[in-house]
Amino acid sequence: MTRIFALSDIHLDYESNQRWLDGISTHDHQADILLLAGDVSDRRAVLERCFADLTRRFKKVLYVPGNHDLWVRGDSGHDTSFDKFQAIRQVAHDFGVSMTPLHDRAVSIVPLLGWYDYSFGQPSEELLGIWMDYRTCRWPAGADDGAITRYFTNENELARATPGRTVISFSHFLPRIDLMPTYIPLQHRLIYPVLGSSVLEEQIRLLGSKIHVYGHSHVNRHVTMEGVLYVNNALAYPTEARISARALKCIFEY
Predict the structure, then answer these.
(1) N or C: more exposed end of the chain, with fewer CB within 10 A?
(2) What are 28-84's pLDDT values in tens digits?
């Protein structure tokens, strides 16, 4: 039996999060698959250690980068965050981590790259002033957030799986804003415009996904909408331990 686990937003620059990862069994998951839905670190050495640690623990690790992973700070050696993305893809390949679809017996697992294009709302002046991506991501001249989103979503492989297989997709960014629960306080909804893109939802429907894993919001959820089970299992920041399960979550077995 193979189990598929979901995890996102592990932010390994925090020592306590690294200790949590170190505590994952090196024996219990040798037949299992992990979907890692972004936000590991903007530091290459941390990303490499993460991939090495996880590929020792799981039969297969699939990954999509999050916004934090694409930060370009200081003398990083990358001209743009697109260059950083290509470097991350090479690191993943070197460590045996997949960023392409996996078709295995009863399942097809499809990574979906993305960004945010303000389909969830326009950013306020306050958000433009505080959101770190605006200072720590670097894009080619003239590339607005719509173009950035298209750059990533156009990379996604959307061929439907063989009939009879369960399609499981995953992204870092949210595919629909109503995944955010109604109890979120109004002052925290400031960040909604930068949570994702409706393009991802269109791609999920084209794929015929039965399960979609996402990250980014740090609000863990397990909810079915219009026939798709949406799962967010974020480790999140140490200060958010009260709202995150801080445990692996099995989403499918076959």
Answers:
(1) N
(2) 999 999 999 999 999 999 999 999 999 999 999 999 999 999 999 876 688 999 999
Sequence-distant (6+) residues with CB within 8 A of 222 are: 229, 230, 231, 232, 249
The residues pairing with 211 across neighbouring beta strands, listed in sequence order, are: 168, 229
Span 8-24, mean pLDDT? Answer: 97
Say if strands 3-7 and 249-253 run parallel, antiparallel, or are unpaired: antiparallel
**74: its two tokens:** 């200081």
205: domain CATH number? 3.60.21.10
How many domains does the chain fold into?
A: 1
Q: What tokens were used for 154?
A: 């156009």
CB of 197 closer than 8 Å to CB of 154: no
The helix/strand/coil state of 221 is: strand
244, two tokens: 């995150």
The percent of the chain in helix, strand and coil, each rounded to the nearest 5, is 35, 20, 45
What pLDDT, on a 0 to 100 scale, did the predictor assign at position 104?
A: 93
Give 50's contacts (C-beta < 8 A, 6+ positions apart). 10, 12, 21, 40, 41
Contacting residues for 156 by C-beta, under 8 A, at least 6 apart: 110, 111, 112, 113, 203
Write down the pLDDT at residue 237: 96
26 is in which domain, residue-wise?
Answer: 3-253
Q: HSE (CB half, 13 Å, CA atoms) of 33?
A: 23
Q: Are residues 223 and 239 in contact, defined by beta-carbon separation less than 8 angstroms?
A: no
Comparing 77 with 154, the larger pLDDT belongs to: 154
What pLDDT is attached to residue 167? 97
